[in-house]
Structures are given as C-alpha cells and as structure tokens.
Amino acid sequence: MINLETPRKFRAFVNQAHQVAAEMLRPNSRRYDLAEHDYPVELDMLAAMVDGLGASGNGSGAGASGVRRTAAAEDGVVNGSNLSSVLSIMEMCWGDVGLLLSMPRQGLGNSAIASVASDEQLKRFEGVWAAMAITEPDCGSDSANIRTTARPDGDDYILDGEKIFVTAGGRCDAVVVWATLDKSLGRAAIKSFVVMKDTPGMTVERLEHKLGIRASDTATIRFDNCRVPAANLLGSADIDKGFAGVMQTFDNTRPLVAAMAVGCARASLELTRELLSEAGVQIDYDRPTHHQPAAAATYLAMEADWEAAYLLTLQAAWMADNAQPNSLQASMAKAKAGRAANDITLRCVELTSTLGYSEHHLLEKWSRDSKILDIFEGTQQIQQLIVARRLLGKTSAELK
Amino acid sequence: MSLQERTRRDAIGVGVALLNKLARSRAIDRFGLRKPAERAVFEATKTGFRTAGALSRRFAAASKPAAPSRLPAARGTGRFDLTPTEDQQMMVDVVREFAADVLRPAAAAADTACVTDPPVLESSAELGLSLIEVPEDLGGIVTERSAMTGVLVAEALAHGDMGQAVACLAPSAVSTAISLWGDETQQATYLPAFTGSSVPAAALALLEPRALFDPFELKTRSTGGLLNGVKSLVPRAAEAELFVIGAQTDAGPRLFVVEPDHPGVTIEAEPSMGLRAASLSRVILADVPAVPLGTVEDYAECVRLSRLGWCALALGTARAVLDYVTPYVNSREAFGEPISHRQSVAFMVANIGIELEGMKLVTYRAASRASQGLPFAREVALARRLCAEQGMRIGTDGVQLLGGHGFVKEHPVERWYRDLRAIGVLEGAVLV
User: Fold this and answer.
1) Which of B14, B77, B79 would best serve as a mutation to test chain A binding (most A beta carbons within 10 A)?
2) pLDDT at A60
3) Could you tell me the residue range of the domain that residue B383 belongs to?
C-alpha cells in the first residue's frame, strides 16, 4: 500500500534525533563555525549516545554505518536501517551538517565498511571511526583515474600516494583508501583498503580552511611506503571484479548525503518561514500563488523542491532496504537534494535580507554549508551523467 | 447479477469485482478505433458556436436511504511503502493497456476533431472509471477512500493522451463529488446512472474566464437557489447531462448540482491550445435552478482533490515525453554520432527523469494522505507547484530535444507541450 509517511516504528527514534539536534548541535553550531579547527568535545558524549541509539533500536541505524544491506528477513515490505539512517541524518543536519560529519564512528568510511566488508572485517572494524579517501590533487570526479598505488608484498600491500579532501581525516581512527593495483588496468584494478591511523608511512599533512562545514575537518593525507595488511582490503582482491564493488558504496552513501542536504534546507525553510511571518507574510496552500506576496510564492516553490528532494531520498533508502537496485534513484536523490538545498538556502538569505546575511542567524551559514552537498560524494554533474547513462542505456565510453 | 445484488465485499471481493468489470471491457478489441471521429458534438472550428444544454435523462431516486453513504479512510500499515496494492496494480495494468492501444493511436485525430470518439468514451466507461470513488453499497466498487487509485488511473490514462483522458474522466469527477459530498437524496438520485451500463456525460465546472482566476473568489453566484455566471474550459459540456458547478454564496464558495436542460443554460465552444479532445466549452448560466452539494469546507477539499487529479495527468504525459525522447535522441545523429552522446542533450534527459520522479513522489504522498484521511492541503499545493513548473519544463524540453521535428505534428511532442500548459491553469474537470 502506497504510504510516504515516516514509518510508525521510527517516529520515536526520529524525535530523539531531533532533540539531540536541537539541544546539542544547534547551540554549538556558530561556535565551531567560527573556531574552525577546534575539536567539538561535545560530540564524544553525543557519539556514545548515538551508539546507544543504534544498538537499542529495531534496525535503527543512527548514522552512516547503518547502510549495510541484509537479505530481507521479514515477509513483505521492509523499513530498515537505510531508511532510519536517512531519517536520522536529516534531523541531525537540521541541527548542523558540520557537526554531523564530525560524529565519531559515523564517517563515510564506516558506510563503505558496512557496504562491502566481509563479516569478519565488519567485526574487526567495529567501533572504528573511518573516514573516506578517494579524491587526489589531480583526480576528482574521474575516480577511476586515481594514482595512489597498492603494491602486494607478502601478506601486505604497500600504499603510496596523496589523498585530499578527506572528511574527518584528522580526527578519525582509520581511513578507507582507494588505490590501484595496476594503473594500466583502469578501474578494475581499484581496491579499497582500511588503513589505521597509527600505520607507519601515513601522515595527515594539513587541514583545509573552507567556505562551510567548518566544524568538520578536511584533511590531506600522504601515504609513503605505507604497509597495510591484505586482510584490510575490502571486497574481492581479484582484478576483474572490484570497481563495481567500490562504486556500490555510493548507492548507499549518496542517499545519506542527500539526507544531509534535505536536513540543512529544512532548517533554512523553517527559520525563513518564521521570519517571513514576523514580516507579515503568511503562506496559504490553497490560494493561487499569484494572489500571494512574491515572498510567499517563492517560499512555496522552494518547499515544493524540498518535498521532492525529501521523498527522492526516502525512496532511494527504502529501495536499498528492500534489496532493489537503486543506483539510478540514489543519483536522482543526490542530484535533486544537492541542487535544491543550495538553491533554497541561498534564496532564504535573499528573502530574509540583513537577518539572513548577517551572523545573527544561521541562515548565512547554512547557505555556505549547503554548497559542499552539491559537490562531495559525486558532484551535481556526475549525478546527471549517471542518471543520463542509465536512462539512455549508454556506457561511460559513449556518454562521456 | 447486478452490482447492487452482490453481498458485501471484502478486499478480495473488490478485486474480483474489478476483474469482472475488466473482462467485459474486451469490447476494446472490437473497436476500429483508428478511424476519425464520425460525429462531432459540435464543430469547434466555427467560432461562436452556441447550443442549448443537452437533454438530461430523468434522474430520480429509486429508493430513499436514511443517510448518505460515506467511504471510510483507508487503513494505513504504518510502513513507508511505494508498492501499489494488488487491486491498484490490476486496475493500472488494464488502464495502461487501454491508454496504449486505444488513446495513443486516436490522439492526433481527437485533437484535430476537438472531440473524443464515442466508442472510446464508452469503452472507458466500461473500464469502471466512474466506479473508483463510489461506495459499493451505491453500486460502485470500493469500500474505502481511493484518491490514490484515482491518481494511478489518471496517470496511466494520460500516458496515452491527456485530452482524451480528461474526456473519459469528466463523468467520474461528478460521480466522485456526489459520492463524497452528496446527501442521501443526491446519492440515490444521481449515482445509479454512473454505475449503470450507460454512463452519462457530466462535468465538474470550477473555472471562470478571467486573468488571475482564484477558485475561492468566484463570480458565479447563487442567489435564491438560482445560479448566474460563466464557467470556463468545461469538458464535454455540450453533451453533459449533469453539472457540478462551483458558485459563490454569502458563506463562501460551494458546489451545486445543475441539470442542464434548463433554458438558462447556454454552451459555447471554447477550443484551447491543448486538451482539445475534451471538447472544452464555456457554460453560461442565467437564473438556472441549482441545489447545493456539500459544505464550504467540502468545496475546498474538492479544489484540492481536483488539483491532485491534474498532477496525476501531468505525471502520465511527462512520462510519455521521457519515453518518446529517449529512443529519439539515441537514434538521431549529428556530427557523426547519436546526439545523446552530448552532455547538453543527455543532461536534459537526465533532468526530465529526475524532476519527473520528484513530481511523482510528491503527488503520491498527497494522494496517499488523502486516502488515509490525513490533512493534505500542503502536499497538494506542493505537488501542483512542482507539476506545473516541471511538467511544463518537460513539455518544452521534449519539443526542444526533437528540434524542428518537435515543432511539427509528425511527432506527438508538440501536443504534449500544449497539454502540459494546462497544469497549473486548470481547476475542476477531474477529481480523484
């Protein structure tokens, strides 16, 4: 039966996440935006609580690690941890995207581990805070073209290369690194490795100063003759099957990033509606927008885009929970949510004038934070490319 | 065995009843539906053509029930789910086939003739379109609110052709309105005609001819039981045997039931840029007796459910655009390769896909809330905004992707462009 409301069994859990966002993330939002590289100590306590939420709930993954796909256990329709994860992330990012990204043990590397690790690895890396390292100085969206190498040596691999834009790379316990076994073999030779932070040869070189999500550290990491046990390679070591495996992670993580965008945009919409109301503008859902103030019409258009982004995100997660292939829908969700959130947060600043632009409110901050959500985990243009290839039945060689 | 003689149905019974209805609709196969319309109700090319209202059949209550029948809200499962019920899927499969085999091939001719072929209308009635919202104890086939089913059906029809879909759905807008808001006398008087073998033409008329039209500020007025005013873009008005018309009262706008065989009713052809197969007309009312249907609150709900119907139609037609341009851009070559190998072309297709999926989910959420008896004003407003904006964007991009070929009538995209402009303009006419 078609129903797009928050599942009954997740409502209490979503409310908890909202309380955390309202009482813990929001009050610290401006502080860590201003103090860019300070460690948000409040998060340690919070992380313990999030772990508790994850453990207590009926399949209620609280964050990025809740994306592991399991065979449908119950009969019929499943509302599982992919769905609860996006719902939780929406609430947390309504609080603060940067702080959510700094949540211990909830890194995107944890999603990768949850998506492709063997049961043994999953157990071994339990409780590890894992960041994701894909991008390199000369390689961004064309991730099949990475230069970081992994050379087999006995029971180990030796990693060499440089990774940039590693979210939580300074604070995490481990990094999931993409490296190639043989550059001449292209994407098939790309594997991901879990590299623990204390591994000799791995150094965090610097942290970036950014437009937004300043509460989250973004690191450059060097691998210099860095020895990693073969047991830390995620997925198959065979060269002919692999890239599909690492790319599959994106089917699970793109809805998460879409959820961040949805949460951030909702924060902007809610505050803007309040400020518009104080300015005497009410939103009427029944009267034609042509009879309402231009600000109300703009608001309605933004809310409509938001609703589409929100539901596309839930759809992608719901499909993952129900073991349906969702690459297309995950990219659609990421594309729509990324551009809608950026557009909404920027227009909210415009609508609220000086209140929006100044640091008195968080509207200007959200409009800076939102920009990254249309970039990382696959830019807007990459998502469009993926959607186009799927709809048109084209290979990456045909539609470049 | 007539529908009324059946014993009370459970969920499976509803499915069986549908199947039975659909089995009879094999009549579709018999039609030579490619031939052009033989009998136009009026010639829309003659501007200023006017006619009197059609003669109504005798509507009379067969029996007097004590209270109106009301459909209860659908019981939710509490789970997020995008899967239609088996009954809905069955209905959609048959309607989709009808849309592909009957409506799509007849679309160009119906557009030109400004009329939907009578056999098409008959076979659409045989599909049970007017039964979807009528309670089974009044001869319909449902036991709970089914706005969601209505949306799925309208979407499937519009994938074939939006103009003919509106013509086919026009009577069910009236039967749905009477089912949802009619009192026991109105239900007993009018609904049997819609659940019988010969469904009358009928129309729900809310629009009025002026810029910045607002359905909550109507100029058509009800005074002393008489209606005066002009309604615009009313489907199949010249042949309609029954109207449900929105008019202003001192308490606010309300719906009224009007039988058109009154001398004060004049029908005037109003051919428009699209939806031409729906034989759009103005209905001019001069001291026409009318009986109120439902409350001021019911009127607001009618506006919302009608907007929802238009969103559903937008989904179907926008999907038709996507399905049509996809093979076209793959086969059309320029500069030595398919034009779909260029990002400027491929990204337009991607955006059609992305926005259409968003429109669909927002519309479904509104429909699902309506079916479950939850407030849905917000969700309908957002769906309408999105479908008007993105639906038209898809319509114009559909033509653009075919270039000059999109501009000529060899391809259906120019018709979809004209039809999709209706979303955001039209109110009333369809109801889920």
Assistant:
1) B79
2) 42
3) 297-420
